[in-house]
Amino acid sequence: MNVVNLEGRNVVFEAVKRKRKIFEIYIESNAKGDRIDEIRSLAKAFSVKVTHVERSFLDKISKTDSHQGVIALAEPLKTYTISQVLKEVENPFIIVV
Predict the structure, then answer these.
(1) What is the rounded distance in angstroms from the CA atom of residue 51 to the CA atom of residue 94?
(2) DSSP per residue over 10-76, as a string?
């Protein structure tokens, strides 16, 4: 299974809110705050498993060292090449920077 870490309170909140495929959310056992409550509530509403863990566990699996007490394991976003986009769009307007 291909999985990516989503790290940080706002990142995880937005991913759950937008119904991104999330396999599990790890929340630091003593994490508090409105955003944590919102993550728990959305996870429950969308049947996403939440596991409470020690901060040392989050530190160990973190890729960014800025997890803010929350890491979600999610399905990677699908990526497209320019040629794939051009095939799918009738009148493409693309800006390349």
Answers:
(1) 42
(2) HHHHHHHHTT--EEEEEEETT--SHHHHHHHHHHHHTT-EEEEE-HHHHHHH-SSS--TTEEEEEPP
Three-class DSSP labels, 3-18: CEEEECHHHHHHHHHC
88: left (phi over 0), alpha (psi -120 to 50) or beta: alpha
pLDDT above 70 for 62: yes
Give me the percent of the chain exceeding a pLDDT of 90: 76
Tell me how far apart the alpha carbons of residues 96 and 14 are, in angstroms, rounded to a whole number.
27
**Of 52, 38, 48, 45, residue with least CA distance to 9:** 38
Read off the pTM: 0.83
Q: Which residue has the higher pLDDT, 50 or 81?
A: 50
